[in-house]
Specification:
It is a single chain. With 349 residues, this protein is of the alpha/beta class. Helix content is 44%, strand content 21%. It has 13 helices and twelve strands. The strands form three sheets. It has a seven-stranded mixed beta sheet with strand order 1-2-9-6-5-3-4, with helices on both faces. A three-stranded antiparallel beta sheet has the order 10-11-12. A hairpin with a 2-residue loop joins strand 7 and strand 8 (150-157). The chain binds nicotinamide-adenine-dinucleotide and zinc ion. The site of zinc ion (ZN) has 5 residues, from helix 10.
């Protein structure tokens, strides 16, 4: 068992342990007095894991109620958000009740935003079931839904009360979705954890508990320093500027993880071409992404990527912050003029 304690506006544990799903009730009862528990899950995860979670919760006195959304990014929308709030209200959830997010990042982001806003905030527990959600989205308190104008445009910073990662749940993931999570794992290595990057040169699955712990620790350190993304937390957006454009342009046909891999490859190539990053480090980054079955080529032009990115919320007046690797484990926030973005992307294609 591994435990990482996050101290942000709320202090909570991230527990990583095989089979913890069957002890979720027990672990939750240590931080939340048994109450009504709304389990938000999706149509793929529910048949695999919801009953086990419900049984564990019931065994210690929680009263679980399940709300299942269709699997996929398209479900992280305002309609499901309102339906879920209505569900909570109909079942008379109060501030002493709680929400459980059982699923990937889509479920976690939607459940978290509902928890942040229902009755101005009720407690929630993250039970991530994808690698991406375990290493990234379940930790740090960013919650959001998508609206037609863009992805993650409506959200809140709201920390969970507990995060439970059961690495055994990863056994039912398809290779593609597992690889999506690997893109975020590789990201931490490039940002500031060269040791993690080196570990990824050996097969990931036999060391998955350690890898999840390393990523959660890296994220914890960054979130502790800058919960609201005014500074260093922006480092976690490595590869994400181009990635968000790619996701949008593909109408979400290209998954978040694949888009992050392409975005990371673009920024690494641009950094190397413009003389910020040693060529050898750039080559290692591209090779690592490929070794994990991730794409590294953009189906879109620099002009298309830049146009979408400049509508993005991360734009700050006439400049935009890019996260640039100056070497593996040494990424920095780099501000460029918005007019230079297209050229920057072009250097990375
Ligand atoms: N809040 C944050 O800090 C943050 C960080 C990164 C990403 N995100 C968000 O996370 C989302 C992507 O997360 P994701 O990649 O987990 O996507 P996802 O939640 O859509 O899950 C991917 C697919 O895997 C299925 N699945 C989940 N667990 C499974 C399991 N154990 N076995 C079999 N199938 C399983 C799901 O049903 C879905 O079809 C995006 O919306 C992204 O914006 C948020
Ligand atoms: Zn991401």
């Amino acid at each position: 068992m591994k435990k990482v304690t996050v101290t942000a506006s709320l202090t909570y544990d991230v527990i990583i342990d095989n089979g913890i799903l069957d002890r979720a009730g027990e672990e939750s009862a240590k931080v939340i007095k048994p109450c009504k528990a709304a389990i938000l899950t999706d149509s793929n995860v529910a048949p695999l894991y919801a009953e086990r979670l419900e049984n564990s919760l019931k065994s210690v006195g929680f009263s679980p109620l399940r709300f299942t959304i269709a699997a996929g990014e398209g479900s992280k929308n305002a309609e499901n958000y309102l339906s879920f709030l209505n569900f909570l209200a109909e079942h008379q959830f109060t501030r002493s009740d709680c929400i459980f997010a059982l699923g990937g990042g889509v479920v976690g982001d939607l459940a978290g935003f509902a928890a942040a806003t229902y009755l101005r905030g009720i407690r929630f527990v993250q039970i991530p079931t994808t690698l991406l959600a375990m290493v990234d989205s379940s930790v740090g308190g960013k919650t959001a839904i998508d609206i037609p104008a863009g992805k993650n445009l409506v959200g809140a910073f709201y920390q969970p009360s507990l995060v439970l990662c059961d690495p055994e749940a990863l056994n039912t993931l398809s290779e593609d979705i597992f690889a999506d999570g690997c893109a975020e794992v590789i990201k931490y290595g490039i940002i500031n954890d060269k040791q993690l990057f080196e570990k990824l040169k050996s097969p990931i699955k036999p060391q998955i508990e350690n890898i999840i712990e390393a990523c959660v620790t890296d994220k914890r350190d960054i979130v502790t320093a800058d919960e609201r993304e005014m500074g260093v937390r922006q480092l976690l957006n490595l590869g994400h500027t181009a990635a968000h454009s790619i996701e949008t342009l593909s109408h979400f046909e290209i998954s978040h993880g694949s888009a992050v891999a392409i975005g990371t490859a673009i920024i690494a190539r641009a950094a190397s071409k413009l003389g910020y990053c040693p060529v050898n480090d750039c080559e290692q980054i591209i090779a690592m992404l490929r070794a994990y079955g991730l794409p590294t080529k953009s189906p879109y032009t620099a002009k298309e990527l830049a146009e979408v990115a400049l509508h993005d919320k991360k734009r700050n007046g006439e400049t935009i912050s890019l996260i640039v690797p100056f070497g593996i484990g040494n990424s920095k926030i780099h501000k460029i003029n918005v007019t230079a973005l297209e050229e920057f992307f072009a250097a990375g294609l």
